[in-house]
């Protein structure tokens, strides 16, 4: 369970308060490391298959970590920053480093978050209380929310992510980002994200992205999402 994790206010968040889990703010000064998956590779079966999880975590995520460390090798001050700040502030880097850090830092941030946003099949709970109220306030009901989320996931041409973020006008909003961009770069706070790169689903779902996203809803860690949502 992730509910015990302390959520920290990011100190350099600027105007808008940004809450991120402590596993995204703790940082080893020697560089970034691949976090352990919080469940077994086959924990999300039958919705997400074990082989996909193994390749996704051990190879894709590892590659983002390795390439990020390589890109920042000559910038120890950046290597020591929490990943969420690296991604939020990458435009302050020298121009030749911005793209590799945007892509690989985003990849590391997004996947570190993504693993926690899912839970073993049957263990993720369901939206309730304040979170459910916020979802209903922004999307009428759960079905309306899911429909809009799946539509955003399908509308992302090529690789990217669909996100549920704390909205400015409405309690919650859905946005999509290309490649490994994260809404934190635009000052938004994501509380749920779905990886719609083909590497996240192709082995089992091939070109059927909608089937993947609908199945993925079965392994969402709503307890974790509620934790993120509860932080003001
Ligand atoms: Mn991925």
What are its keywords?
232 residues; alpha+beta; minor pseudopilin epsh fold; three-stranded antiparallel β-sheet; two-stranded antiparallel sheet; 9 helices; disordered N terminus; binds manganese (III) ion
Could you characterize the architecture of this molecule?
By secondary structure, the chain is an alpha+beta fold. The chain has a domain at 129-230: Iron/manganese superoxide dismutase, C-terminal domain (minor pseudopilin epsh fold, 3-Layer(bab) Sandwich). The chain has helices at residues 50-71, 76-79, 83-88, 95-116, 129-139, 142-155, 202-205, 209-216, 222-230, and strands at 7-9, 19-21, 160-166, 172-178, 190-195. The protein has a three-stranded antiparallel sheet, sandwiched between helices. α5 (129-139) crosses α6. The protein is globular, with a radius of gyration of 17 Å. Residues 1-17 have low confidence and may be disordered. The structure holds manganese (III) ion (MN3). Manganese (III) ion is lined by residues 56, 60, 111, 195, 197, 199-200.
């Amino acid at each position: 369970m992730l509910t015990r994790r302390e959520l920290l206010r990011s100190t350099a968040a600027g105007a808008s308060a940004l809450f991120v889990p402590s596993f995204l703010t703790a940082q080893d000064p020697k560089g970034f490391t691949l976090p352990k998956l919080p469940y077994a590779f086959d924990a999300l079966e039958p919705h997400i298959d074990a082989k996909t999880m193994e390749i996704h975590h051990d190879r894709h995520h590892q590659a983002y970590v390795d390439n990020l460390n390589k890109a920042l090798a000559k910038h120890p001050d950046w290597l020591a920053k929490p990943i969420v700040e690296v991604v939020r502030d990458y435009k302050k880097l020298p121009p030749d480093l911005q793209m590799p850090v945007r892509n690989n830092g985003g990849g590391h941030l997004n996947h570190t978050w993504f693993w926690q946003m899912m839970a073993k099949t049957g263990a993720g709970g369901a939206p309730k209380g304040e979170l459910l109220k916020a979802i209903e306030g922004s999307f009428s009901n759960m079905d309306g929310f899911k429909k809009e989320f799946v539509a955003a996931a399908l509308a992302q041409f090529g690789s990217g992510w669909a996100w549920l973020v704390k909205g400015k006008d409405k309690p919650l909003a859905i946005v999509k980002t290309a490649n490994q961009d994260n809404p934190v770069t635009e000052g938004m706070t994501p509380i749920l994200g779905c990886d719609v790169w083909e590497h996240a689903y192709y082995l089992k779902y091939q070109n059927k992205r909608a089937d993947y996203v609908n199945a993925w809803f079965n392994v969402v860690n709503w307890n974790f999402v509620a934790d993120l949502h509860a932080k003001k």
